[in-house]
Amino acid sequence: xxxxxxxxxxxxxxxxxxxxLFSVTPEATFxxxxxxxxxxxxxxxxxxxxxxxxxxxAAIGYIFKRGTEAYRVLSDPQLRVRYDEALKNGILRPESxxxxxxxxxSGVARAAGVGVGTRLSDKVRNPGARPFVxxxxxxxxxxxxxxxxxxxVMAMHMDRGNPALEAYGKExxxxxxxxxxxxxxxxxx
Length: 189
Hints:
Layout: H1 3-12, H2 18-21, H3 30-44, H4 54-75, H5 77-88, H6 95-102, H7 107-111, H8 130-141, H9 145-158, H10 163-188
Helix pairs in contact: 1-4, 3-4, 4-6, 8-9, 9-10
């Protein structure tokens, strides 16, 4: 991607929807959305552009930040419904959803050293682990720590020694154990 293409992206970024950012339709499934985000990330992940001029790096970082914002909103079913409503009213980037998507840190995330406004995916050092961590966050939010742990194991293989991922894994283990204990207790009744 050359400097002219970057300028075009910057010029149109505020006039396109989150769906257009990933080249998907509003009817896109979660898999379609994830694939669109991955294609977007292949082009705009800052780690792939460290050789560029600092101004170009800043532009790429800005575009990528918008993409992660869009993915956070569209991958959350409740936020996506609200985004679709805003979009019907001509609002391409509703501030309230952006703030909400960034500030939805769970207790597990805080325990892993990920504070409010920060997500576990922000602590990933290896870009290959990021898709797995995004899925971990989604599954944990849905209350499925066992499946989240499986995805986290994959992420940890790609980002070995990451203390945030390791701490999150311990918290997920505790949640899995607590769920199992609860199920046993309810079964005995």
